[in-house]
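One record is set out below.
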Amino acid sequence: MTSDPKEPKDSSQPQPDVPEDPTFVGPAHQDPLEIKRPDSMTAMRPIDIVEDSPFVPMTPVGYFQDDGAPMTELELQEDDGPTEMVSSKLYESIQSADVDEFGKRYQEFGILARGGMSLIHKALDRTLFRPVALKVLDEKLVDESIHAQRFVHEAQISGQLEHPHIVPVYEFAHNKQEIPFFAMKWVKGKTLKAYIHSREYQIGSARCLYEALQIFMKICDAISFAHNRGVLHLDLKPSNVMLASHGQVYVMDWGIARTYQELPAQKYKAVEEPVRITEDVQEDKNPVLGTWNYMSPEQAKGAIEQFDERTDIFALGAILYEMLTGNPPYLGELYEILSKIQSADIEPAEERVSDVYIPKGLSKIAQKALSYKPEERYNSVESLKRDIDDFIRGGGDLPVRQFEAGSVLVREGEHGEEAYIIIRGRCRVFKRSENRDVVIRDMGPGDVFGETAVFLERRRTATVKALDEVTVAVVSHDVFEEKMLLGSWMERFVKTLAERFQELDQQKMKQLRENEQLELFHDLLTYLHLYNESDDDFRMQAKWSPLRDMLTKKLECSAIELETLVERLGVFQFEPENDLYYATSSALHFYLKRRGFSL
């Protein structure tokens, strides 16, 4: 007869040793100050299950320490051959089993994990032929109404939070012993905690950090959804986030969640579709619930009246902190953790792991979420996620500066210590040539400027002016050293490219000046040809003021600047008293010959 996982076991039979998480402050630990942490570990949690088949019977015999190191390994009891979705041998055993009413629905494969007030079993739904996780209230707590009440609330909350990143609940029921349980989606994978402490996750790796932030964004989506339904999780931590085998992310364990009709951090915005739970039949006398390593100050004090969305945001900051450093914000023995919570003693991520590069912008985001005072944290998960998204898209790690339309961002000839990335708005680049401004190009969002002066430690080669309101990300020389590995072999490549770019830029400017001079010469000569007032065969002359007015408008320069440009051609002369300009045939012949024109 197939055993019922909810019924009391025969005490003579060996039971799997499934310890609780000693850092979780729950029903098993009514007085948090009396929690004693085992000497060899800071926090224990069930090992993550990774198997070849969803139906391989298993015996959980191992757990991870809080630093991710396995204490023992998981023993898998393999079938004789490869297991299909539902093997014929398994199907036959299901059909022929002598089972009770509960056993007709679920076939159990052993205890996977144990929490503060429940056990997790892996089972097969005999009706739908799918693996499920059965969460069963600890039989020792069945007669304690507060724990049974909390267990029911967890099932009700999880069942109503239908979201891609929240594990679905299929059914809530009682077995024949009247022990409540609920069936959930079986998630094949590992916890975020296991991923962070695995060999594949390298602190400081850009690739690993990018993948972790993608996971973090999905966690934010789930919690934001829950908040909008009036639910606070209150026990967010990496071991309560499952990463499935195909990239799915699930927020787990809503056992101490609370429901609200309003969102205090958002000025008591009413919840549009609040989650419904059965009314409390007994007041919870233990207000301190959660996990110390990730707990906000107000949660550690048991100040339930201060709980709001920012309480979860603190825990999200703690998860982000662990992604950056490999450890939660609070480490040490319980008395040390309590002292750090009271003093808000959380060192910045880049100081915790000074031997690897931690983006300061990302560290600041985590630090803001971990602020001691709730009002100094993000007021919504959406705003936290927005900053993370900005960081991922680029520029999130950089300070931002704004300029009004017409402002000069950089000026030609000045020393440059910063480069810029345009986030919003348009800019115009121009150089001073022949006493006037020559437009080089216009730029928009995504364009970069000012980098040459930073690379080569030289003066600016052009002026950049804002055409409208402009927002830029500022890249300092120090950031270039961090990001571009200046001071190493990479520096030589970068500087060589910058020098070649500057040479090409100078050649371009020289060619541009020559082209402008030819165009000016053409305008002056054409006007002389059309409006020549001289009877001398060796001289042409015309009124200067009409042409001057046209050219100053065309070239966007003053009359004095225009006359300087004309004189530099070495061909044309002025008679101001007669408002004339003229050119001799010999001067024209010499200029054209010097330019390579055949006459």
